[in-house]
Design a protein that fits this description.
The complex is a heterodimer.
Chain A: E1 24-25, H1 33-36, H2 40-54, H3 64-83, H4 86-89, H5 93-120, H6 122-125, H7 134-160, H8 167-197, H9 200-215, H10 222-228, H11 233-237, H12 240-253, H13 260-267, H14 272-298, H15 301-304
Helix pairs in contact in A: 2-7, 3-5, 3-7, 5-7, 5-8, 5-9, 5-12, 7-8, 8-12, 8-14, 12-14
Chain B: E1 6-20, H1 25-33, E2 39-53, E3 57-62, H2 68-76, E4 83-89, E5 92-95, H3 108-118, H4 123-137, H5 152-164, E6 170-174, H6 182-197, E7 201-205, H7 209-215, E8 218-223, E9 226-231, H8 233-239, H9 252-260
Parallel strand pairs in B: 3-7, 3-8, 5-6, 6-7
Antiparallel strand pairs in B: 1-2, 1-4, 8-9
Helix pairs in contact in B: 3-4, 3-5, 4-5
Chain lengths: ~300, ~260
Amino acid sequence: MADVVADPEKPTPTPSRRRVNAPLRPPWAEQGLLEVFRHRYILTLLVRREIAARYQGSVLGLVWSYVNPLTQFFIYYFVMGILFGRAQRTEAFAIHVFAALVIVHFFIETMNAGTRSIVRNKSLVQKMAVPREMFPVASMLVSLFHVGPQLVILLIATYISGWHPDPEGMVIGVLGLVIAMTLGTAMALFFSAANVFLRDVSNAVNVLSNFVRFGVPMMYPYVLVKLRFHGHTNLYLLNPITEAVLDFQRAFWVGATSHPARTAAVDMPPNLFLLSLRALLISFGVLVLAQMTFSRLERRIPERLL
Amino acid sequence: MSRADKSIVVRHVSKTFTLRYHRTLKQMSVAMMRQQELSDSFLAVNDVSFTVDQGESIGLMGLNGSGKSTLLKMVNGIMRPDSGKILTRGRIAGLIATGAGFHPQLTGRDNVYLNAAILGMSEAETRRKFDDIVEFADIGRFLDSPVGHYSSGMFARLGFAVAIHVDADVFLADEVLAVGDRPFKRKCMAKMEEIRQGGTTLFYVSHATASVRRMCDRVLVLEKGRLAFDGDVDAGIRYLHYEDDDTEELSEDAADEEMGADI
């Protein structure tokens, strides 16, 4: 043991010179969303850590990923479908609710977990030089992972109700998910940085989640909005999550009704595809704004994370 | 020496922190009525400039609150200076992030991979060094149980073992030997010696004069955020008046004791 420890009195030999050929450059990591994907290995590890840790020590484990949305679904279905009698007036109301719930749940989870992502990982943020966009993006991917089980339930339910899948519906469905991912990431980015400076933000996000739940055609059909807000549906459709929800309903619910063509004409806004493209564009614009805000705030994040 | 031999270049670097007195709206309005200051700023690092040659080993010393850790965080790339320029060459690693990101619910094995990734190691590199890391940490069969069940010493040893196995071109060490028992400290010192002999630039923050004497070629002393001294090791320690409590003929055990007081 003692022979490996050099005597403090003895002058240590001059270390051999080693030439490092790398250039001199600033030590901090390049920031930005695109940089996140150059650090894919850390990103996968972070996502895996979150997924593994979420249900660690629970007996049911991943089953909770099914239980949570399912219970929500039963509550909504019971209250809106049976108590309010929606189920008699809207065909395959259960699938109508659940298709929307998959998107809404994903979006809200992304927003909530994303908001807390930087504060919760402060020990990492203060110690590693990686793009800090990593944390909100990882939250989005973890939520996306949990969409899987819900899609399985949705597919089984639609199959039982005699679903007729159509290629156009599938394309629109994918578009809906991409809209929710883009806007979810934008929200997660923006709120995660803001939450470092003002912890009130996470409470405000909770309030916002309530608006999201009721601001989209999940517990009520779009037809009702057209009827009651006649002339103002454009305002309603400006919210990209509305399109994302309608897209998912177009993909799964419309095909499960007895007359898909009629349902699509009555219950969906005309030219849903174009509306969805517009929603994607809006989401992308919000994402750019969120990234700009994030970049501005990001510099002072480590010192404010106390 | 030409610029090509530099490993770290720090030019006129300053960093200000904002101290916040009042956090809630109520506290702020009360303070405003009493006409107190709402916030105050604090210059943690003030116009510091120095360069480090490749393979040099630098001891960064100074009293508590003199800005050592802030400077180290900026060299590591975690914080950015408000003004001035920092350039480094090659991969930076060090004993700053020991145990950072250890998830208490994941096993030691999973945590090693995650922590290594945080320190910039690829999956293949981690796999190659995995056995060495585990052997160094010496945590035995606890490797596959959750880190949350570890004793604090084991937790620290595992973090340390990962950090010290990163192949770095610049190695930063902040108050490293505050953890672990004596055999482990010796092992760490030996490993750092090895890193240094390999020609890695070493940047060592410590209050322990014996270990600075042993490890470093040059000492920087920070005083209230300013670079007060830059030069020879013994002169630097004398500048700090630390040698009063550092008897010349330090026995090895005494040196170890002192390392324990490294915080």
